């Protein structure tokens, strides 16, 4: 059975199972689908472009699902005065940073260690959930904007909000999450706006490589990022460019001109019929719906 409509997308942000869809299948039955189980056989609209979850099972299928951007703090994405402004490259204190909790994750712990070895190049303090080692919202963005490159290592899943935030403080995101998938890959050339580095090569070599990139090249990437970041923003419908626009493009690409299946037949005159030669347009549901 194929999906007929994706009706409502409910995004409950900040929760791992953040997306639930109401779909209607071809029997007209509403289905509540949580796409975080690998039994999901529908076109799923996922915030977490993620091939693997905690248990290393796939929650995302490249061939049918759609990834949507993470929801960045409104204070950074709105028009007009922002929470903070990006700094000119010359005024940034660090080459790179990672500002997140380690959560016992290998890549993150590695970065925190690396920052202890190269404290003037890499800012990666050991942050906590609460207390003095937690950054407030404003503080967080103030730190984030203070490096040329913002490192985005894998966490619980391959997904990382930091990637999207980078575009609003204008640092170049460096993806250190091999399985991560990103939205709108039919439209965006990610090599122009980010770097993806193998996560098993987190170490001094990464910092050397980043230091070898000229400011001119960095500015070019930041500039490309400025052009596409409107696609990360859940803006009102009146906006020409927004995340919703990107999602509509992706959904449109899923629409086929012609729908074939093992139970679909067609005649000389364009009539599409079922096995009983009944035209689909005349087909009635066998049982009345409640
Ligand atoms: C096409 O042909 C079939 C069989 O002759 C007929 O039942 C059907 O009504 C026709 N459809 C149209 C759209 O003319």
TrEMBL record:
Entry's localization field: Golgi apparatus membrane
Key words of the record: Glycosyltransferase, Golgi apparatus, Signal, Signal-anchor, Transferase, Transmembrane
Region forming the signal peptide: 1-17
First-listed, main subcellular location of the protein, grouped into a coarse class: Golgi
Membrane topology: Single-pass type II membrane protein
Pfam families hit by this protein: Exostosin_GT47
Domain of life: Eukaryota
Span of domain Exostosin GT47: 85-202
Family: Belongs to the glycosyltransferase 47 family.
Protein name, UniProt field: Exostosin GT47 domain-containing protein
